[in-house]
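Researcher: Next entry: Kunitz-type protease inhibitor 4 (Podarcis lilfordi).
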Amino acid sequence: MASGGGVALLLGLLVLAADLPHIVSQDRPGYCLELPVQSTDPSGGGSCNQCSSDANCPPGKKCCGSPCGNTCQAPQPNLCRLPPVTGPCKALIRKLYYNWGKKRCEEFVYGGCQGNLNRFDTLEMCQEACGGQGAP
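Model: Predicted structure:
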């Protein structure tokens, strides 16, 4: 039989192990911008696959997917501020995005892949997510 101290130690280790994924994988706030297709990372360092989570990035950066792998990028704090991104695919899909400067939802053509989170199927969805934000 295990002693009382051994059981307490075991329970303590189990609690610590349960919290470990939260400590290691704490995502940083913000959203990733969609980057154009390129062969190296946007910072000019020459390496694309430089992170697997936000914890691998320097302070103030977020691990974001890009066409050449995961790179550390400056996050966008609000999806409603993101520009419309058609993406590299060739579909012609009508979508809506929130125009931060004009403070309204507007149509744009989405190619069907990649893009960013400022992309909505209906006016109601766009207004619910972003309505009332931005400059008047």
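Model: Note for the record: Helices lie at 4-24, 123-130.
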